[in-house]
Amino acid sequence: MTKDEADELERATLSDSTMSPERATNPDLTAFKERTHLYTVALQFQSIQRVRVALQLSCEGRPEQAPTFIRDKMMEIEKDVVKYMADQAKMFSVWPWLSDIKGIGPRIGGMLLGLIDIRRANTPSALWRYAGLGTSPWCVECNTRLSDRETVCPKCGTAAIHKADRPIKGEKLRYNAKLKKTCFLVARQFIMAGTEPYTGIYREKKAHYLGRGMTAGNADLAARRVAVKIFLVHLWEEWRKAEGLPVRDPYVKTYLGHQDIIPSRNQE
Are 265 and 97 in contact, with CB atoms under 8 Å apart? Predict the structure, then answer.
């Protein structure tokens, strides 16, 4: 376990006795602790898996030297941790829907649930931005990111174009890097498991981008981005409904008039 993971675990497991009565009974704080704890356990599960896989790889070709009892014990621990994560995830109202999606297990699901506060994401685009899948206006002439409301560069007058958010040296990160990484894992799981409709979206978009002359690598990443953004829209809608929070039609339907909206599993 890294120092950062250990610090997260310590913060997540602080005793309520160290807090004031007001903070100890604060539902927002309780929800935060539950989410942080679940994400930390998911990270620890990854660490256990890495050690077990490294142990197996180190003994390949030398079966007589393989410490099978250690491998078997670690596999038992993995099963126990998966069961624990599944039990913890049941506390989240959206888990029945999320766990029914092919490719989303307690580990990936726990990381998503542990990183997202659905009450703070009033729109799908807000969730996209927090996950690092949003866009920002840029001036291509000055190679500078503009403020969200600027449509023209104040320095050179060039019309702004929207580009995917990315880290900029000297500026505070605008998104949660851990959630962005988790979304990449989600897209990979969908492709490996053949999860529909997201795999179909990925293939369609990849073919589209290749037809526009993009390289295979860039087309693959762009298609994964689209697929996981559609998934986040579905997650946002189902989670907000499960929590009794208001939902709205997608921006492309309300303001752009699109009618071919891809429904989530519960709407099919």
Answer: yes
* b/e per residue 169-180 (b: at least 16 CB within 10 A): eeeeebbbeebb
Q: How many residues does the chain have?
A: 268
Amino acid code (one letter) for 62? R
Average of per-residue pLDDT across 203-220: 94
Number of Cβ within 10 Å of residue 126's Cβ equals 13
pLDDT band at 39 (very low <50, low <70, confident <90, very high): confident
Q: Would you put residue 145 in left (φ > 0), alpha (ψ -120 to 50) or beta? A: beta
CA dist., res. 43 & res. 152, Å (int): 43
The pTM for the full model equals: 0.79
pLDDT for residue 9 is more than 80: no
Angle at alpha carbon of residue 96, lines to 99 and 100, rounded to 5°: 35
The whole-number pLDDT of residue 30 equals 56
**pLDDT value at residue 266:** 58
- The residue ranges of DSSP E strands in 30-100, in sequence order, are none
DSSP characters over 168-202: -TTS--SS-HHHHHHHHHHHHHHHHHT-TTHHHHH
For 88-112, letters b (16+ CB in 10 Å) and e give: bbeebbbbebbeebebbbbbbbbbb
Q: What is the largest CA-CA distance in the chain?
A: 71
Sheet holding 161-164, edge to edge: 144-145, 135-139, 161-164
Q: Summarize the confidence of residues 62-68 as an average pLDDT.
A: 60
